[in-house]
Design brief:
Layout (H helix, E strand, L loop, with lengths): L12 E10 L3 E9 L5 E9 L2 E8 L2 E9 L4 E5 L2 E3 L6 H13 L1 E2 L2 E9 L8 E8 L2 E2 L11 E6 L3 H6 L6 H13 L1
Parallel strand pairs: 4-10
Antiparallel strand pairs: 1-2, 2-3, 4-5, 4-7, 5-6, 5-12, 8-11, 9-10
Length: 182
């Protein structure tokens, strides 16, 4: 065990990077790395621009979206979220996604946390925001978005969490935040 605060002794150096796929949302590379002990290994990496997720709170209710997710094969109950476009600030994405998905605007959208979704193989960083004092307008869904809005009273969150009604990490983190702070 070392007392080094720099953690340089843990870093891996990318020696080669082969692009396997480059799509609209992700890029996948197969990288050869030099390990801290000098040996080599390989890493499969999903590169992602990042995303935002918003906790919309209004009059003791949280607003969620229910939508089908092809990778899971399930309809999930989630907080509003969306990917950050290139050259777009996460705060701007949060405002845009709040309006698109639940038709709401907020005078103050405050950043709470940033977290990686799956750091063992993906670079996706989610920026978690909270939006209060919502004003509702019309949804502005994108052409390929199909979802239902569902509001849940804060008093029902703990039982919904314990019953497994939330199955994605960003929503579980959001619900835990609300249970601890609101």
């Amino acid at each position: 065990m070392t007392n080094s605060k720099s953690y340089e002794h843990l870093k891996e150096e990318i020696l080669e990077s082969d692009e396997i796929f480059n799509g609209r949302v992700i890029k996948v590379t197969h990288d050869k790395v030099r390990l801290p002990d000098g040996e080599t290994s390989y890493r499969e990496i999903v590169h992602h621009n990042g995303a935002v997720a918003i906790i919309p709170v209004h009059e003791d209710h949280l607003y969620f979206v229910r939508q089908f997710r092809v990778p899971t094969g399930e309809v999930l109950l989630e907080i509003p979220a969306g990917k950050v476009e290139r050259d777009e600030a996460p705060a701007d994405t949060a405002e845009k996604e709040l309006k698109e998905e639940i038709g709401a605007v907020s005078p103050e959208i405050r950043k709470l946390y940033e977290f990686y979704t799956a750091p063992g193989f993906a670079s996706e960083l989610i920026h978690l925001y909270i939006a209060e004092e919502l004003k509702f307008e019309a949804q502005a869904l994108e052409a390929d978005e199909f979802l239902d809005i569902e509001k849940v009273h804060v008093d029902s969150l703990r039982s919904a969490l314990e019953e497994g009604k939330f199955r994605d990490a960003k929503t579980i983190i959001a619900v835990q935040y609300v249970l601890a702070h609101l």
